Amino acid sequence: MTRRTWTLDELVEGVRTADRRALARAISLVEDGDELSYSLVRELYPATGQAAIVGVTGPPGVGKSSLIGALVGHVRGLGRTVGVVSVDPSSPFSRGALLGDRIRLADHFLDPGVYIRSMGTRGHHGGLAEATLQAVLLLDAAGKDVVFVETVGAGQSEVDVAGVADTVLLVLMPGSGDSVQALKAGIMEIPDVIAINKMEHPAAKTMLNEVRSIVALAEPERRPKILLTEALRGENVPELWQALEEHRVGLAEDGRLERRRRSNLAAEVFSLAASRAEAHLRTSVADDPALRHVLAAVEERRLDPLSAVRQILEEVFALDATNDR
């Protein structure tokens, strides 16, 4: 079967009308860094900023996908359209295929008001694929009212989700050593709302008290709301959605939502620029015998690292070595 060739205009119109095939192709283009994706995002970007972006993070195996599935069902019951971007620590071969408990989201695959995409991290270390923001922007441009971004659950590196979402939901599970480690690792600084899933577990109340004691150390305005949930039966899912909505409304009312989004987008520009600059730097050093010699001098302790950095930046980026701080 021959893959359809899309023109830029067809893709733009397809995304704007939430055509599933156009969305699938558009997200594949941004994942692959295809040249057409730059023009596509540029055309659609002015129409973004309407969707509520909810980041969902937490240790592996705590039921993030199941909880997202339950939230999607609830949000659809409210008449809103939904997008889901699930980020997998996958190889280029699996390309982020749905695995494990993520299959719970399959209940919504045939719903025309829901679009689900699984993406591979492709070696990006922050828990999110580099193309995640672009995928979220495309779903936003497609008119999705709510977009959930699920991360791989890699611990402290999950701070990246805070740079994409309006509201961050941390999911924990009682009786899980990983959940305890997440508490110790400082991940508690990330969430705006916390869900302790599998509420009927004997240790659920103990974990609730643990989390409350840690949250109490934060400034009052930074203390997230904590709820017990049971994703598979949908218990407290409406209450959880209400907490997520209340957080976002609170941000919007006093201007913090706009400030957060501006800060997130600016940070994304620097992040993408730094990533591309590093790739260019590595290639330039590898291709230039003189620069390889500078690197070798550091390795042999004949030249200090700071002096080497100055020489390399002067050569590759034409930066003034006397004004590089």
Task: Provide an overview of this structure.
It is a single chain. Helix content is 46%, strand content 13%. It is α/β, with parallel strands linked by helices. A seven-stranded parallel β-sheet has the order 3-2-4-1-5-6-7, with helices on both faces. Helix 1 (8-16) crosses helix 3 (35-44), helix 2 crosses helix 3 and helix 2 (20-32) runs antiparallel to helix 5.
In short:
This protein has eleven helices and seven strands. With 325 residues, it is α/β, with parallel strands linked by helices.
Class from helix and strand fractions: alpha/beta
Instruction: Please state roughly what percent of the residues sit in beta strands, choosing from under 5%, 5-15%, 15-25%, 25-35%, 35-45% or over 45%.
Output: 5-15%
Q: Could you give the count of β-strands?
A: 7
How far apart the termini lie comes to 55 Å
Q: Order of SSEs, N→C?
A: HHHEHEEHEEHEHEHHHH
- The amount of helix comes to 40-55%
Give keywords:
325 residues, alpha/beta, seven-stranded parallel sheet, 46% helix, globular
Q: What is the element layout, followed by pairings?
A:
Layout: H1 8-16, H2 20-32, H3 35-44, E1 52-57, H4 64-77, E2 82-88, E3 114-120, H5 132-141, E4 146-150, E5 167-172, H6 177-184, E6 193-197, H7 204-215, E7 225-229, H8 237-253, H9 256-287, H10 289-299, H11 305-317
Parallel strand pairs: 1-4, 1-5, 2-3, 2-4, 5-6, 6-7
